[in-house]
Amino acid sequence: MIRVLFVCLGNICRSPLAEGIFVQRAAEMNLDAHFLCDSAGTHDYHRGSQPDGRSIKVAKENGIILNHKARKVVANDFHEFDFLLVMDESVMDFLHRMKPKGSKAKLLFMRNFDPKAPQNNEVPDPYYGDERDFKAVFEMLNAASILLLNKYVQKENWLEI
After folding, report:
1. I need a labelling partner for 21 at 20 to 30 A (CA). Which of 13, 64, 76, 150 fits?
2. Residues 6 or more apart from 159 whose CB is under 8 A from it?
3. pLDDT by residue (tens digit) across 14-23?
4. How many domains does one find in the chain?
């Protein structure tokens, strides 16, 4: 089983949405037994909170139910998960500083495999935006999830960069 942790800043917008999309798409491809997924944030601004209502809404409009309580990434996550899929450069920098020596987790940008991603591979934070921003983020995360799952199915050195 491959353990994947999706990580953003506060764990109420991008990372729970990424987790929900990935889990749903994996289930649709009959791959859900291959993955264990969770999400977390680099900061505990919203610890214990439901995802942002706009994330919940865009997910629901696309047949995905978000069932997550925000949490902060902890040192043990680097030992418990195989991959930490990161939303932006600030989160990546934070996680590199936090990563314990000897941990097995690989840190990768969520959009590393998306040919439509900008050069920096970031998923922009929609928190201060509007519904259009959440829909755009949904589309980015959905495309990245499908690409990652297709790469897994094709056994193309999954998430090796």
Report:
1. 76
2. 83, 106, 108, 112, 148, 151
3. 999 999 999 9
4. 1
Residue numbers of the domain that contains 25: 2-153
Find the CATH number of the domain harbouring 105. 3.40.50.2300
Q: Does the residue 158 lie in any domain? A: no
Any domain includes 93: yes
Per-residue model confidence (pLDDT) at position 158: 57
CA atoms of 104 and 106, how far apart (whole Å): 7
Residue 148 to residue 26: CA distance in whole angstroms: 10
pLDDT of residue 161: 41
pLDDT, tens only, 26-76: 999 999 999 999 999 999 988 889 999 999 999 999 999 999 999 999 999
161 occurs within a structural domain:
no
Active-site residues, by number, are 8, 14, 125
Asked whether residue 160 is domain-assigned, the answer is no
